Structure prediction request, 246 residues.
Amino acid sequence: MCFTISVEKKAKEAIREYLKSNAGVQMQIDFDEMLYLVSGYSHPKLPILREGAVTLSEWGLIPSFAMAENTDELQQMTLNARAETVYQKASYKKLIVSQRCVLVVDGFFEWRHDNDRKYPYYIYPKDGSVFYLGCIYNSWVNKVTGEVRDTFSIITTDANPLMERIHNTKKRMPLILHRDDIASWINPETPKTTVGRLMKPYPESVMSAHTISVDAGNPRKNRNIPEIKEEVRYPEVGTPEQHQLW
Prediction:
């Protein structure tokens, strides 16, 4: 699963580099927010990389067949789309064919369950770069008002060994793409067989993680602060080095 992410300085820099390296890609949006921790359940508008453009899109996909009175309910259920069933689900099966996009994040958050307690983790690239999350998108039109809402969902895969130890109940993780695979992922002409090969767990060898404050899971706290990602160790969980022995 992937319901909580960080989109800040490194992600913005990566998007600027992407624009420099891909002439003709349009970005006619302003995105100045620093989101140290943001939940998908708040349905934030985030910059996504699409074929030929970077656009702002709401997290929580609204399928084209949705009725206006059902959009809020649907968005709560479409923050993620499972790679194994994305070609079968009515909400996703047309979009995975030709409406794929990428969300750039500094990292993401997940919780380990142990002895009736939940321990939050911040997961990030080992080399200090960013993660490129594979997503699908849709532009939903309100048939009564004509309002257009751009929305997206993050694809998830089986967990790699690191994420199995952290997300030890559902054992899922977001689809993380290598930078060199972005062009193939967002190209609507990419064959289904190639798309399928891209939907696999990211290698744990290039990922890092550490435990953080339990405040990360408390929506009543101000979680959108840089300090939310700072390491907090729990004796019963052990050090990052000991995590390798789980």
Q: What stands out?
A: The domain at 4-243 is CATH 3.90.1680.10 (hypothetical protein yedk fold). Residues 120 and 218 are 11 Å apart (CA to CA).
